[in-house]
Amino acid sequence: MPIRVDRTSPVPLYFQVAQHLEQMIESGELPMGTRLDNEADLAGQLGLSKPTMRRAIEYLVGRGLLVRRRGIGTQVVQAKVTREIELTSLYDDLAKTGRNPSTTVVSFGTEPASDSLAAKLGIPAGTPVYVFERLRYAGADPLALMRNHVPEQVIRLSAADLRTQGLYNLFRASGISMRIAKQAIGARAATAAEARALGEKPGAPLLTMERSAYDEQGRAVEHGHHVYRASRYSFDLTLTGW
Prior knowledge:
Distance between the termini: 40 Å
CATH topology of the largest domain: Chorismate lyase
Number of helices: 8
Radius of gyration: 21 Å
Number of strands: 10
Order of helices and strands: HHHEEEHEHEEHHEHEEE
Largest sheet: 6 strands, antiparallel
Number of domains: 2
CATH class of the largest domain: Alpha Beta
CATH superfamily of the largest domain: Chorismate lyase-like
Strand order of the largest sheet: 4-5-6-9-8-7
CATH architecture of the largest domain: 3-Layer(aba) Sandwich
Shape: elongated
Helix content: 25-40%
């Protein structure tokens, strides 16, 4: 196990080990299905106590990166999806990283825009908008539950299109170029319905994202409320000084 710990660091030893293992899982060095040695052997390899190694493993089990199975031991499960904060779609990001995106359309229809939605989209209240909810998978793993509103005047949509393609792919195919978005990220506990859809327990942590996206003419083309499994998904930001 190519892990080195720094005993002079203020960072706890278990957390140093957990971070190294997480990096190895995310990079593919420890691919999905890899079985780890037992805790006593790992502790011996790294010169650590068994309780320290157990705590590192338990941390990664809690993060959803490892799973303990009776008769098999500790295995790597699918690495968390990490998404940079850019004006891209989840479908595009999953496809780009080889995560095999697929979609179940939970609901699809049209409705008149409410006052609050109309204000976000810059359209008159009562304007017809598509409203649809989709469950997005990474491979066989449910990852996100997404509810979107799109003005009918922007693009023609169907449930069949949304099952096979990402929303931003459909925008591009219609000649719509996305230029800017206003986005807010938060967190909350899963409702019972969300937990059932995402394969989580009620009350499990979810990441939330609300986004209004605009095209090159400054026209709002979509507004979305999305929730993501915190055990399988994270946002990645790069900050620079000036």
